[in-house]
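Next comes a single protein record:
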Amino acid sequence: MSDLSTVIEVAGALSAAGGLGYAKARSPRVFWSLVGAPVARVRFSVTYRATMDVCGLTVQPSRLRAFMVRNVARRQDVQPVPPQVRRVRYSSTGMRATLRLPAGLEPADVSAASERLRHAWGVHSVHVVEVKPGFVELRMTGYDVLRRVKMPRRLPRNTTAGPLVVPVALREDGTAFVRDYQKVPHALTVGANQSGKSMYQRNLISGLAKLPVGLVGIDCKRGVEQRGYAPRLSALAIIPDEADGLLEALVREMEERFDLLSSHGVPDMWGLPAKVRPVPLVVLVDEVAELFLVAAKKDEERRDRMVMRMIRLAQMARAVGIFLEVCGQRFGSDLGKGATALRAQLTGRVVHRVNDKQTAEMALGDIAPEAVFAATTIPPDRPGVAVAGDSSGGWSRIRTPAMSPAQAVAVCHEFAHLTPHLAALAPFRPVVPAAPAPAVPLLKPRPVTE
């Protein structure tokens, strides 16, 4: 009987170990919640002070603290002071600890030691975010959240839901990467073929389609990428001549909106009364190089007009609710006159895997030079992984969830009723194709019986 019970215990232990191993490989969220988080919490609590001391994140106490230790606590050994732990929270992807920094430490000191903290506490990554002066948050992830993207339900703490906020991808710290057009009005997305650039655009368009905004498409590859989004587009240009006319119409629309602002005495469209406020417009430019490159000298005048109009929109259109999303494989001064001036106005940058270092430097070198190396080391077997940065100098790795073209088209058909009709863009309104029919499963023929 004792032998049988021993066999049962051993079998149970092996089954439990096998189950945990399977969960770690196939369901890392479950493994982290059951095993990873408790172990990391104990390791964090037990080794916190020693780890901070070894990593050089302790400072000599103030004179008042030293006086209190010697005269009240009656201790002559006054030890260096580490950051004070104010709050520890858990999530399905990791753990967050809010620290109050003592005098003499700054967030950059903690950021410089993030790799050592990661190894000390046995977590996948440690990211340091300044919450407010004197406070930082350690965002620790228990596993590689970019391996299988699952978007969080909540937006980041410093982001509020609004009319122009779109969750697009997942950051490597487990939070959502959002496009907030009121904070970052214009953006540039670059990446090589098969890097996930189109997948990023599909997620962006699917999110925008659900909002009360107008979408304008410019796809000079005969509309192969954006024609399916026609039900949700207020205008679409698929050849350079159409793009020239559409950009001219957008400039006229911008000027009319500025006249409206002037008549009401407000600096931007958000100060207008709701009943007269125009609908925001997002201009989606796919493969921007097609607007710059010319095949003959006679086309140079048209190219110069289009580039100048895009620069005018990028410089002034934010106040009247017109925003640019520019996409391409490469975007630099080699495209021609005006490329550098346009790029300088595109404050948001998303760089997928690129074919050369120069492309990453063109997109990120002027806003976050340290992110260039991260963009050049994106592996080819992870489509959708990118480096996102902005003019503040901050950057992070992101990955968009997989989305097929059919799924994005279906979203545009579902929310086609939100498409605004604008008189200035009416000549460029695309022909709406019929909604895709739902897939009908094939029935197996019944066997013939005699």
Observations:
- Confidence is low (pLDDT under 50) at residues 7-18, 442-450.
- The longest strand covers residues 125-132.
- The CA atoms of residues 213 and 280 lie 5 Å apart.
